Structure prediction request, 254 residues.
Amino acid sequence: MDIKFKKIRNCLVVYPTGEIDHHSSEVLKKEIDRQCESALTKNIIVDFGRVNFMDSSGIGMIIGRYKYTHLKGGKTVVTGVSDNLRKIFTLSGLGRIIRIYPTVEDAVENI
Amino acid sequence: MIFDNEMILRFKSKSQNEGFARMTAAAFLLELDPTITEISDIKTAVSEAVTNAIIHGYERKDGMVTMHCGYCGANIYIEIIDNGKGIEDIEKAREPLYTTKPYEERSGLGFTVMESFMDEVIVESEPNKGTKIVMRKTLKSLL
Prediction:
């Protein structure tokens, strides 16, 4: 899985590309946690704009990052959720604890 | 059941095979010309069932997973079979958000996703013998 990171203000923005399942989410979790430690940011924005598949392993990954940032007094939010992924987001009820913004810019402004 | 067409795939319980299994199921069913949403639903359900076999059935140890796909008219059937540890309480396992592995950041949504994305999910399991998940979906686009 190709993952890009960018630091914008006090947010670590994560851009995963491709498919998120149990296999790739293990890599994604480790990489985000590693980058979070070194970037010294308390907020995480995960942009799903380049993700074309996600199963419930991706939901577990986001909840894990939510707990991590929550402990540090920060937030985890998501952006770029396509119609394709919206079904699993809705089903999980994740929207009740995690804000979903249309774009990374919106998330940075409002986090 | 006599299928119009069917196939069987057997693969090792490696997490990298989750993608292989769902792509193979999607490729097999492409002949039926399903909608993008239908194929996406099927891929997600297959991914959940195969992940369960790897994580819970075999608990990441080596084993073989069998995927049997078939279709009959507009109904497609997918079976995911493992010979792993089995499920002690199927009813409990099917409850939304229930997971035996919360420390591994599992969401506990595997069965909920299968049930929501497919039309019918049957779970047959016996402790120490394994689990068979049978999923059916009617491709509405074909009706």
Remarks:
- Helices of chain A lie at 22-39, 56-71, 83-92, 104-110.
- The radius of gyration of chain A is 12 Å.
- The first strand of chain A starts at residue 2 and ends at 8.
- Residues 49 and 80 of chain A are 4 Å apart (CA to CA).
